[in-house]
Amino acid sequence: MKKKKSYDYARFGYIFSIPFVVAWCIFQLYPILYTLVIGFTDLKGIGTKNFHVLWTTPFANFTQILTTPSFQTAFKNTVFIWLMNFVPQIVLALVITAWFTDRRSTIKAQGFFKVIFYLPNIITAATVAILFAQFFQYPKGVINDVLINLGIFKNGAVDMLQKKWVAQGIVIFIQTWMWYGYTAIVMISGVLGISPELFEAAEVDGANQVQTFFRITIPSIKTMLLFTLVTSLIGGLNMFDIPKLFLNGKPDNSTLTTAVFIYNQAFAGSYLYNRAAAASVIMFIVIVVLSAIVFYLLRDKDEVALRKLIRQQEKAYKRKQKGL
Question: What is the DSSP letter of 138?
Fold first, then answer.
């Protein structure tokens, strides 16, 4: 009787992944590499086809970008706005997570609340920007009308968007409002994956709700926290939609972010593609370095120590085998 020939189905996985790999190479890898190349050239001007590599001063574009006051302002604004919206965003997400996953209390209409929390993330940035622009419109806007009717603005309408701290505060609020629901859903999904036996053991040991949350829930969703922090870092440092569509950097560059700066350099009349590419590469390096630092700081030290011990044991075993 002939032995049945085994068939390797694993190769079909590689075949099915080909369309994604091809699309990624065309629409992601190629633009990244092309941008990197442009950063070392003198390419500028709309319709320009001929450009030259700056062999004598290859880092001239990078140096010029780093010493440009508007880029420095944009970078400071980006970091500040991201930090100021990420901190309340993660706090709100953790509060909602603790509220929804508490085993000792039952919340009615959880699905309704989850939809309400997640709804701002579904609305497009353009819609949100237009909505808030109408709210704060001067002299006739919803916010001005309400504050005048309440007697807070006694001398008439105020153009609040001309104040830097107000403009930045609104952008921070919008970013927090749009993303806290998404972060909460991610955290809740992480908590639901924790073994119920851990919570039962804590309850038997007499731990209260706060102790259970900080000593069991938080350590158990450390991976989710790392994922949220890294994705928020990447998204925050690439913040473009709301600052561009809502205020376009106004007033006095207080809402100018690095992504808006890059857009202005490349397309808003300047057409300095070489400088825009250099700024993009700089931000790419910053994001990679900061992400690596976050991964290092939030690594699982016990798992690292275990892997190190396993490697040492494997080396000792190999030495022993050679000795025999």
Answer: S
